[in-house]
Amino acid sequence: MPKGRAARLLLGAVLGLLVGLGIGLVLAGGGDDADGGPVATEGGALQDVGIPVATDVAGDPLPDVTVETLEGEELSLRDLAGRPLILNLWYSTCPPCVREMPAFETVHQRVGDDVRFVGVNPVDSAGAARDFAADVGVTYELVRDPGGAATAELGVARFPTTVFVDADGRILATDPNELSESELTERIEELFPA
């Protein structure tokens, strides 16, 4: 059989399988509610599969969980409060995370005396995070969340997510989107008025 025909047959079989699976999920109910969205439990996970979904944590205090510096020292997430705080959850192979980091660095250079910036990485090793930050030119604090406790407690389900925290350690807002320099500046001016 010619290679081109074999490739077309394989592609057709794969597409047929995917379409069949999709139809089967729809007919079986697929775990969706009447509105077509996933059914979430009170704990913020999709029913029966344990996949985390975003949780609104605005108004909550910073969770009492431990993160670690890139040097391996443990610290409480709550200990990061004391002045307005921006937590940016990221990892090095997340394209929107990579794209927004220079904007965060620029804003950090401009307002870093008044607003503390901390990058929280639940994926990369300390060495990989350190090397990546050096390549990108990031100078603000970076910590790791190797067990994912902080990521889960902050209700993060997609990356990047930015969490805005007041000086008392109360979460003001979260933004699960890539932020430009102007968008980040606007959020700072809105949430942390001078």
Outline the fold blueprint.
Elements: H1 3-28, E1 66-69, E2 74-76, E3 85-89, H2 95-111, E4 116-121, H3 126-136, E5 141-144, H4 149-153, E6 161-165, E7 171-175, H5 181-191
Parallel strand pairs: 3-4, 4-5
Antiparallel strand pairs: 1-2, 1-5, 3-6, 6-7
Helix pairs in contact: 2-5
Description:
Residues 7-51 have low confidence and may be disordered. The N and C termini lie far apart (72 Å). It is built from 5 helices and 7 strands. Helix 2 (95-111) crosses helix 5 (181-191). Strands 2-1-5-4-3-6-7 form a 7-stranded mixed β-sheet. It is of the alpha/beta class and 194 residues long. The longest helix has 26 residues, at 3-28. The protein is globular. It is 36% helix and 16% strand. A hairpin with a 5-residue loop joins strand 6 (161-165) and strand 7 (171-175). It has helices at residues 3-28, 95-111, 126-136, 149-153, 181-191; strands at residues 66-69, 74-76, 85-89, 116-121, 141-144, 161-165, 171-175.
What would a concise description of this structure say?
By secondary structure, the chain is an alpha/beta fold. It has helices at residues 3-28, 95-111, 126-136, 149-153, 181-191, and strands spanning 66-69, 74-76, 85-89, 116-121, 141-144, 161-165, 171-175.
List the main descriptive attributes of the protein structure presented here:
alpha/beta, 7-stranded mixed sheet, 5 helices, 36% helix, globular
CA(first)-CA(last) distance: 72 Å
Strand order of the largest sheet: 2-1-5-4-3-6-7
Provide the residue-averaged pLDDT: 79
Number of helices: 5
How would you classify the helix and strand content by structural class?
alpha/beta
Coarse shape = globular
Secondary structure tally: strands: 7
